[in-house]
Structures are given as C-alpha cells and as structure tokens.
Amino acid sequence: MSVPEELVVLLAEDGTRIGTTPKATVHTLETPLHLAFSCHVIGPDGRILVTRRALSKLTWPGVWTNSFCGHPGPDEDSVDAVLRRASAELGLPISAPQLVLPDFRYRAVDASGVVEYEICPVYVAYTDATPEPNPDEVMEWAWAEPGSLLESVEQAPFAFSPWLTLQLPLVVPLLAETTAH
C-alpha cells in the first residue's frame, strides 16, 4: 500500500483557498502563498521547546527554530494538524493547542534561494513529556527560558529560522500573560 501524497493548501493574497499542490514540490525559488502553522510547546516549568532543523531539510537546514511547524491538509482541521505534526516530528503528546497569532504571515528567502511564503497561524501547546524527535526533521532540541531565548534571537538572528525571529517577540509577551493568571 502506498503512502498518499501530502498536499498543501494554496492561498490567494487575501487568504482565500484556491487549490492544492504537492508538499514535495511547493518550496522553490518562486514558492506560492500557502497555508502552514507554527507551534511553540511549553513545558511544566514554563520553558519553551526549541528545535534545530535537520541538515537534510530543504529550507534553513541546521538552524534553531520553534518547537515544530507543518501544513494542514486540504480537509484537515488546523488543531488536528498541530496534534499530528507534534507526534510525527517530535514523538510528543501535547495538550490544549491555543491559537495565539491567527493572522501571522511571512515571506523569507533561504541562502539557497528557496522561498517560504506562508499564512502561518501560530499556536502554543503544553506537554510534560520528553521529545523523541524524528531525525529527518530535528537534529537537536532544548528547553529554553522564553526571555533568554528572545535575547538570543535578537542578538544572533542568523542562527534562527526567520519565522521564529518574527514570531517570538509576539509570543513571549502572551506567555507572560497566561502565566500571570
């Protein structure tokens, strides 16, 4: 039995769904706007899980990034996609994915010229488990205090994915709000 081809949802500039394309071919020098998501996982002590992308990744290989990312399938609920990728990428059970940045969007060009161009809602989720990452996705991981991570991203943005450098300044204050209550 063959594995079904993974599709990503193509979007118009206004965010309207306009079709699908194979994930394996979407990221090029002229990547079309498509739907994705990012998730920041928080441990019981309030630290945030960061991962280092595998060297085999097409875009930004070897850089540190948020906990995990992915693309919802054409008929897949976004929260279901977040739960699916947490398991597939990190072998990690998570609970309570919360949409914190519903309109996050970015375009970035990798050193190789490959473009990421996504409407990428951002989630925060929680776990008390230890990651068991898929080595095709993640080569390293660490728990980081959010404020220290933000300082590192500000001082050395080249060591981090462009989406993390854009998301983290928006996510860290939200984390402070949720732990203050």
TrEMBL record:
Q: Where is the Nudix hydrolase domain?
A: 32-166
Q: Does the keyword Repeat apply?
A: no
Question: What's the cofactor?
Answer: Mn(2+); Mg(2+)
Protein name, per record: Isopentenyl-diphosphate Delta-isomerase
Q: Which NCBIfam families match?
A: IPP_isom_1, PRK03759.1
Q: Which family does it belong to?
A: Belongs to the IPP isomerase type 1 family.
Pfam families in alphabetical order: NUDIX (PF00293)
Pathway noted in the entry: Isoprenoid biosynthesis; dimethylallyl diphosphate biosynthesis; dimethylallyl diphosphate from isopentenyl diphosphate: step 1/1
Which Gene3D superfamilies does the record associate with it? Nucleoside Triphosphate Pyrophosphohydrolase
**Cofactor binding, note field:** Binds 1 Mn(2+) ion per subunit.
List the signal peptide residues. Answer: none
In the UniProt record, does the keyword Isomerase occur? yes
Q: Where in the cell is it found?
A: Cytoplasm
**Role played:** Catalyzes the 1,3-allylic rearrangement of the homoallylic substrate isopentenyl (IPP) to its highly electrophilic allylic isomer, dimethylallyl diphosphate (DMAPP).
Kindly list the positions annotated as binding Mg(2+): E89
* Domain of life (superkingdom): Bacteria
Active site annotation, chain numbering? C69, E118
Keywords carried by this UniProt record: Cytoplasm, Isomerase, Isoprene biosynthesis, Magnesium, Manganese, Metal-binding
Annotated positions binding Mn(2+) = H27, H34, H71, E116, E118
Q: What is this enzyme's catalytic activity, as reactions?
A: isopentenyl diphosphate = dimethylallyl diphosphate
What EC numbers are recorded for this enzyme? 5.3.3.2
Q: Upper lineage ranks? A: Bacteria, Bacillati, Actinomycetota, Actinomycetes, Micrococcales
